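Whiteboard transcription, Tuesday session. T.W. wrote the structure tokens on the left side:
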């Protein structure tokens, strides 16, 4: 990947990420997060990690962000209109937390990196089947229960949001669709 293209993408990702954090409208902030995730997927494509790029778009920019937008629109959040002392305290806490995270990140970057444990598959098996097939095999055998549990939790969240929206609509006298 060319360094100029990487720098342009990195600059766009930083701008989109800052928009996520600094924009007062939660819907526009969520849309900026989708843009950040798409740009990150472009970097994965340029690194020839096509499966990770596809998963990035499908899982994060697709499913999870649709759920975020659904909840934001369901709760009818527009802006944070609080200008009291509690708002100032939250901002101060956010800046302190950000500085602390930057200091921790700097401390982690300065230390030598340790490699994690190697996989149980031999390099010959990975070369023969490929990374995608090995990952799918592990996901649907060893990690099937956590994978299904995650999908069940997302389903419960969606059903709960629909129930809350139905109750809210009845309470406010909004007609339900037939």
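and on the right, the sequence the group agreed on:
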């Amino acid at each position: 990947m060319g360094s100029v293209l990487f720098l342009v993408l990195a600059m766009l990702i930083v701008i989109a990420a800052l928009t996520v954090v600094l924009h007062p409208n939660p819907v526009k902030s969520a849309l900026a997060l989708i843009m950040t995730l798409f740009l990150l997927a472009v970097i994965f494509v340029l690194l020839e990690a096509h499966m990770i790029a596809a998963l990035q778009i499908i899982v994060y920019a697709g499913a999870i962000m649709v759920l975020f937008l659904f909840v934001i629109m369901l709760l009818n959040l527009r802006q944070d209109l609080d200008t009291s002392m509690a708002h100032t305290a939250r901002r101060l806490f956010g800046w302190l937390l950000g500085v602390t995270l930057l200091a921790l990140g700097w401390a982690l970057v300065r230390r030598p990196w340790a490699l994690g444990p190697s996989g149980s598959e031999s390099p010959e098996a990975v070369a023969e089947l490929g990374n995608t097939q090995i990952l799918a095999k592990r996901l649907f055998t060893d990690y099937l229960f956590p994978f299904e549990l995650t999908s069940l939790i997302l389903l419960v969240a969606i059903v709960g949001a629909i129930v809350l929206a139905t109750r809210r609509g009845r309470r406010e006298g909004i007609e339900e669709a037939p």
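Someone added at the bottom: The two ends are 53 Å apart (CA to CA).
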